[in-house]
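Entry for iron/sulfur cluster complex. Fields follow.
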Amino acid sequence: MAAKKRVEGGKKKVAKTAQVKKPVTKKTTRAVAGTDPKRVAAILAGLDAAYPDATCELNYSNAFQLLIATILSAQCTDVRVNQVTSELFKKYTKPEDFAYASPAELEKAIRPTGFFRNKTKSIMGASKGLIEQFRGEVPRTMDEILTLPGVARKTGNVVLGTAYGIASGVVVDTHVIRLSQRLDLTRNDEPKKIEQDLMKIIPENKWIKFSHQLIWHGRRVCAARKPKCAECNLESLCYSKDKTV
Ligand code: SF4
């Protein structure tokens, strides 16, 4: 009978050595290649050249109307919102008119903009918030505006930047997300992180205009499907995999 002699699991005894310390490696933060200041400046210059007068395309005559129009613009085109508000703002002229409206009537009035039930709740809630907390005036700080029901940073940035000229951040909508990724200005997907990335590389005095310019470029040239790269004045700066030239 062969002796059952096995080497224990092939385990090798490792001689205790003097404590060998792993070399300390420095954590490296990945720089976004596209955020080189010269490249960013060239993109800003290109946007200035193409869209010197870019601004919000929603119709409004005061900060309150812009707040309502911006809430309505979620998942809807500005053209459609303008069609709806041209009638809406004749009947509902002040926060009280929305806050104490008949929900069914308001829903019917804004129905063409989609998601009309949620939008009705947001509009009525925001209007009540304005009356109860801010004497019916749209506040001028992001912290205050964010206390209104149904109002998030995107709406806050639109209203503060466009109605009051207050640069509180960068509007991050679907166009800004797509273009800032294509232009390699961010490698994030979350709107909040994208906004933080953009606020770091775009001069503060450009935040308001830059948002509008990117939105205009997204609507006119750099569409989600089939961007018109042959017509794009940023083409030489863009190395997006979505390019069509
Ligand atoms: S080159 Fe094409 S993908 Fe790049 S920004 Fe211009 S339109 Fe958009």
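NOTE: Confidence is low (pLDDT under 50) at residues 1-18, 23-30.
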